[in-house]
Amino acid sequence: MNHLPLVSVIIPVYNGEHFLAEAIQNLKRQHYPQLEIIVIDDGSTDKTAEIAAQFHADIRYIYQSNQGPAAARNHGINLAQGEVITFLDVDDLWADQVLIEFTSYLIAHPEVEIVQGLIQQMQLDPTRTDRYADAFKPIFEPYQFINLGSAIYRKSVFDKVGLFDPELRDNEDTDWFMRAWEQNIHKVVMPKVMLFYRQHGRNMVLQQTNLVHFGLLKIFKRHIARKRSQGTSSVSPSMHWLDYSGQSPI
């Protein structure tokens, strides 16, 4: 355990009073020996700050004016002291003990820059009347796809790929992974669920479905523009984009 590096977990949150305490407690249950939890409050107007104050000994809490999730994550990366960076959206959860396993793999394989796990999609069951945290049930089989919270990253990879584009209010994760793919950033996918992706009425993505689809077109246009600007000197990715974003586990 002593060989494990400091891991910085960045939680961007906007009006997440229903989820923040559970997210922090979920991270503490990882029992990771060197953990830095950075909560970036992106201009919340609810009780997010009050809830964060209850965990003042366990987290770094930073408030900023509302600038969107990309800017919030960038702020967290700039503050992070860990050799390893990862992200957890405030309404999602991680599988227990997954952080030790994934970080150990990353350290044992210096050529790997991203270790990714599977995603278990969860749906809010409106018929449940007990604790809100228990009112989610799994749907579909676990899968691998783009979701920042399903992976851990060497901090150095952000020097190569760059930060998230703050101009993007959606699909900033797809844009970043596409840039990583273009640069042949080496990632592996572990055949284990890391992230419980919880869908509910407050999800930003679910509220902006049409905008997300439009945003994907914009991301691919950016990719084409980069390739054209690089010309024949650019290095082709070692695998197809669909394989990189949704490849089979190792």
From TrEMBL:
Task: Give the molecular function GO annotations.
Answer: glycosyltransferase activity
Q: Top EC class per UniProt?
A: transferase
User: What EC number is given for this enzyme?
Assistant: 2.4.-.-
Keywords for this entry? Glycosyltransferase, Transferase
Q: Where is the chain membrane-spanning?
A: none
* SUPFAM superfamilies listed in its UniProt record: Nucleotide-diphospho-sugar transferases (SSF53448)
Q: Which Pfam families match?
A: Glycos_transf_2
Which PANTHER family does its entry note? GLYCOSYLTRANSFERASE (PTHR43685), GLYCOSYLTRANSFERASE 2-LIKE DOMAIN-CONTAINING PROTEIN (PTHR43685:SF2)
Q: What is this protein's record name?
A: Glycosyltransferase
